[in-house]
Amino acid sequence: MTRRLFGAALTLALAAGTASAQNVLINGAGATFPYPMYSKWFDEYHKKFPTLQFNYQSIGSGGGIQQVTQGTVDFGATDGPMNDMQLKDFEAKHGGPVLHFPTVMGADVPVYNIPGVTGQLNFTGEALAGIFLGKIAKWNDPELMKVNPGVTLPAKDIVVVHRSDGSGTTYIWVDYLCKVSKEWETKVGRGTSVNWPVGLGGKGNEGVSGQVKQTPYSIGYVELIFARQNKMSFGKVKNASGAFVEASLASVTADAASAVKEMPDDFRVSITNSPGKDSYPISSFTWLLVPAKIPDATKKKAITGFLTWMMTDGQTMAAALDYAPLPKAVVAKEQKALAKIQ
Amino acid sequence: MAASSTVAASAGPARPAQSFWQRVRGGDEIALGITFLSAFSVLFVTGMIVWELWANSSLPRHQFGWSFLVTQTWDPVAGQFGALPFIYGTLVTSALAMLIGIPLGVGAAIFLAEFAPPKISDALTFLIELLAAVPSVIYGLLGIFILIPILRTIEPALRSVLGWTPLFKGPFYGVSLFSAGVVLSVMIVPFIISISREVIRAVPNEQREAALALGATRWETVWDAVIPFASKGIVGSIFLALARSLGETMAVTMVIGNDPKIKASLFAPGYSIAAVIANEFTEATGQPYTEALIELGLVLFAVTIVINGVARILVATAERGKM
Prior knowledge:
The complex is a heterodimer. Chain A is built from 13 helices and eleven strands. Chain A is α/β, with parallel strands linked by helices. Chain B is an all-alpha fold. Helices cover about 75% and strands about 0% of the residues of chain B. In chain B, strands 1-2 form a two-stranded antiparallel ribbon. In chain B, helix 11 (about 220-245) runs antiparallel to helix 14 (about 290-320). Chain B is globular and about 70 Å long. The model of chain B is unreliable at about 1-15 (pLDDT under 50). At the A-B interface, helix 3, strand 7 and helix 9 of A face strand 1, helix 8 and helix 13 of B.
């Protein structure tokens, strides 16, 4: 009896063993911002190819870069492109480069709480930089009055709220401020965490929006997706062509489309403050980081297969989750880059 | 250890000396082995933590040296790191928490142990112990949505009474060192109450009977005969509370304002060591940024040890002074 049971268990175990040999598990880790999009994609792709399983841990962009460099995951994901030093590090360890593949786009929007002001405010890049530098300290500053005709702005101190946790959202925001303000670039610079001249720190988008809601006369920034899903109102921002644009999926995609011409072949590009009259200026790609050399043939096939699908069928699912899809020109460029994976 | 050796000694003359295996069968050696292993593993883990923190923070230790502890700039972009604002925020919030928490906690413990009817005391204690099990993120949310609005309403009163001190100057945004201290005090009170109550109840009844027989009132009995007897345990509960408040992360980061600047006013936002590690570690890339955060962990460890040490010395001197 026991022997028969044991035999049955053994056969079962063997069967499970052979079955799992055909299954391919691809591990990835990185940015939290695109996590809802990625889990939707990986889920859909798994339904299409049941033997392929993608496992994604949203541990943050920094962690994604670190893990893909150490080789503990098959691919990484990040909201800010890897810098030259990190690329060199990767190449030294793996004997081949790492490729950036833009997947979807996001944007940051200014949110504010001014008792008595209900309409949508206009912001120029200079004004935003001035506020976050602490140089524009009152709401009735001429810089703000002049682009908001007809709105009575109070003579109250501005309370600045920023992210306290290191974040791709912060990176996009300060990257934009660097482009519109020399003073910001030299004094503060860009990074996922910076040395803020003024303001309170809130943890996560919900921390910032909560703080703004609770503090009268405050201003902060959150991801467009977060603002849309929570039905928050936010300000328009003046783009490089001089138009005040409200952030929307279309205006974010337009921003990327206008940046395609100058896009380098490795896709490591900041698209904040791009030209084009419909572009929303505080937008950014988010990237997948894929090693150019994948020794395991089945894994290589699975990853390139997924990337191809993501650029076509995958893109159609983006808008439903409030992510801005890639412009066609970027997709065409990416499809060419796929050949670099060996 | 001492107990087991006296047992062995007294058993000695009655029976011949036991062999090692007999003692193993008797269970003494097994108990000794297991308890020793437990104690050793705790020490081992602590040692490993210190070693890991030390080994992984060599870059900033060499680059900044002791100035890491006394400089105020924390600039990940420029690679400049100083821990002083975080140390300051940690100490100030914990001090405030102890200032509010100790009288409240010890007072409540005395009431529950000595004055309240047993049924009410047990029911209240159960509720208080539940408080200790509430996750800290819940305290943070309560801080944001309930405590800060309350503080906003009492802020003008505070300012009119204490506004002449530098501690209550400047604008009040809600999130501040003050709010963090108050939230922390709420979090540590259950620790003080539940341990102190047990300790006070464990004081032998002879103490009370003797004091009452001498004509002491109930309060005199408690204050002069019971509390001194229980003081070691009460102090122990306070140390536990202090350790908790120094290391508290989530609730603090939600209400402290996360601004690494040193301002005298309690109304100003601040930052604590644990909070900055939790906030920045996941997205920290490059060196010495990551290692500077690890060094902050080392600093927090050192701060905890130093404060505990100083407090213990103070308590010991106070007790010697009494005798």
